[in-house]
Amino acid sequence: MRLFTILLLLIIAARTSGQKIDNTVSYRGMSGDRYLRINYDNDLFAGQDQNYTQGYSIELVSPALSKNPVNKIFFQFAEDRQISGIVFEHLGYTPERYDRTEIQIGDRPFAGVATLKYFKISINEKSKQRITSQLNAGVMGPAAIGKEIQTSIHEITGSLMPRGWKNQINNQFVVNYAIDYEMELTRIENYLGLTMNASATLGNLNTKAAVGFSTTFGLVNDPYRLSKDNKFLLYGYIQSMITAVGYDGTLQGAIVGNDSVYTIPAADVSRLVG
Hints:
mainly beta; Lipocalin; 3 helices; 10 strands; about 45% strand; globular
């Protein structure tokens, strides 16, 4: 029965759309409490360029960051292992016809986001649970230099030049607080694992809640164990999430005083997405 459930979730997950990578989830976890990780996404790798078009992050995890005063507003288990970190993240969003100068009515607006994120991961080995708390603050708009970054990448790759960034969402400060909860449902040694995921985000960049499942398969360590069996890892992962959207600043602009030339009206925002 467990195997059937895992296979069913894999099929469901394969039918959902992609999203930006979140490095704090268990299936992207790193061994130890001290590391530097650089991550880069670009949908050109998939032969397209729309919606979440590209992003990169520079992540530092260190025991020294456990003394960060921001950690006082984060959640944790009573008996746990804690990992504290900080991330600089840059994200870019474009409509499908990014090469056109005119506004793409009915499609998403151009938007660039640059933020600094503090986070703490609390892991309970006995109950197989993880809580990740995050505080994200930064800017959305021309100050995030989304236009300059995407234009440079397209010049290097010889792709069509993005010409609609003059219509991007205007400058605004963004602040978000997020909590992600994970609980392992079943595991077949270090080869297959099934996890339940739930998250909630509040802020003027995103306000949303999500629930779903993630599956890992291959040669992978148990992310809830303190000791790691394998030093060499080779695995895949699939995550399927249903998200209820309250507000999306990359679509709707500023909550108060929105003066962007084009945003998506609240009535046209999809409130339930996969």
